[in-house]
Amino acid sequence: MNRAAMPLVLLLGLVGCTPAESIPFAEYQATVAAIKLGMSKQDFLKLIPKAEARGAKSYPNGGVEALEVTVYRYHFGPTSEPEWNSVPGGQVKKVWFFFLNNTLIQFGNPNEWPASLG
Fold first, then answer.
1. In terms of CATH architecture, what is 20-108?
2. Which of 7, 22, 31, 117 could pair covalently with 61 via S-S, beta carbons 3.0-4.6 A apart?
3. Where are the domains of the chain?
4. pLDDT under 70 in the chain at which residues?
5. CB of 19 within 8 A of CB of 92?
6. Do 83 and 110 form a contact (C-beta atoms < 8 A)?
7. pTM (2 decimals)?
8. Cβ–Cβ < 8 Å for 98, 65
9. For residue 82, with 0-12 CB atoms within 10 Å meaning exposed, 13-18 middle and 19 or more buried, which class applies?
């Protein structure tokens, strides 16, 4: 292989490894500051349009819908952050946002549904 083409091949390989519906970590950090409990689902989707539906549950107070956001970052050294892999390279973190009657009531780790709504 031509040595001059090697950096381009490596760059294309890194870009190809990025999950399709993910958002870059820096973009997520800038956006998450604007996310507030009590905001509408419509306003949330204006901030993060790539959120994907992951499920819904019925509660006495109404229906709760979960949306998932996939955050992607690449780093060159190990990390001790528990929500990210400890191995260097491309990493994915998933965050779920829970809406009761189209109002944000909770967000955090996947499958951590609200315990009670009363």
1. 2-Layer Sandwich (3.30)
2. 117
3. 20-108
4. 1-21, 77-88, 118
5. yes
6. no
7. 0.74
8. yes
9. exposed
